[in-house]
Amino acid sequence: MKKAILITVLALGSDISVAQNQDFRVLNDQLIVKQGQVLIVDVNKYILASDIGVYAFGSTYTPNKNGRTFIGVDSEKVKPGLYVVYLVNMKDGSWVGSQSSQVEVLSGSLPVVRINKKSASSQVDSKRRAKESQLISGAYARGSKSEDFTDGDFIYPLKDLFITGPFGFRAYSNATFLHRGVDLRATAGTSVLAVNSGKVVLAKTNFSLEGNMVILDHGSGVFSIYMHLSRILVKEGQTVNKGQIIALSGNTGSSTGPHLHLAFKVSGTIVDPFGSIEVINKY
Question: What is the reported pLDDT for 39?
Fold first, then answer.
């Protein structure tokens, strides 16, 4: 006999902490999240263990040591609709507890920017790119899921913000791709700030597409990525503070002019940096 699941819908405006009789709680208002943003789930400490995970959108996610779980909602793979979230044993995939929550994913309504030329990615040497991809994947693998390195709310990486390229799709003459971040106007040499405290898991130069790049691990499976830099001011393994100058903006890699490309990766999924900062800071 299959185990019965209790669908729990929590009242809007109630305390955001997990009640003693709840295994977990979805924090997003009205249990709604948009494509390209972040679903936040708190697992009650009484049930929290190393083998407990949160199941959502066909995958299992690891809570940090405090029980908070950040889940990036993929803009392409997770379609608008209703999804059930519940706890699982990550060793065997079995349900844990008797509670679940139904969340609604709304369309991200991502813009499509048409560009009358071929994408730069189609012109990159495949062997070089494979080596670069291994370096980037290795950096993410060094990140911590259990620790939380953040210091309060996330901030923005530049003092003056002007978006020149939104998070959304770019339709080139040969293909359409997701623009996996936001482009921010910045003259060469502008100070780039760490959006929150964390550890440097990558600080390398001369990537074919990203140029000079820094990746910060904020813990809990959350990373911020800074591309096209003219100068890197931190080293791999270094701990940085929120607001610290980590680099200077530039025009390196596949770039048509000086700017900063900011990206966010949450639990393995690239999400809208600004939309996700807004959601994470709310809770």
Answer: 98
Same domain for 178 and 243: yes
Q: Which two tokens stand for residue 7?
A: 């669908």
Give the Cβ contact number of residue 112 at 10 Å.
Answer: 10
pLDDT at 185 over 90: yes
Sign of the dihedral through C-alpha 152, 34, 99, 84: negative
Kindly state whether residues 79 and 125 are assigned to the same domain. no
Residue 257 is predicted with a pLDDT of: 92
- Asked whether residue 129 falls in the same domain as residue 253, the answer is yes
Give the closest residue to 202 by CA, choosing from 231, 238, 228: 238
Same domain, 146 and 260: yes
Q: What is the dihedral of CA 179, 181, 86, 67, to 10 degrees?
A: 160
| Buried/exposed 75-109: b ≥16 CB within 10 Å, e otherwise | beebeeeebebbbbebeeeebbbebbbebebeebe
Domains identified in the chain, total number: 2
Determine the Cα angle at 104 with ends 98 and 108, to 5°: 145
What does 186-217 look like in DSSP terms, one character per residue?
--TT-EEE-SS-EEEEEEEEEETTTEEEEEEE
Q: Which domain holds residue 28?
A: 6-106
Assess whether 145 and 263 both reside in one domain: yes
Rounded to two decimals, what is the model's pTM?
0.89
Tell whether the model's pLDDT for residue 18 goes beyond 80: no
Q: Is residue 1 part of a domain?
A: no
User: How far apart are the C-alpha atoms of 121 and 101, rounded to whole Å?
Assistant: 40
Instruction: Using CA atoms of 157, 161, 166, 167 in order, give the dihedral in degrees to the nearest 10.
Output: 30
Q: Tell me the torsion sign for CA atoms 130, 131, 133, 134.
A: positive
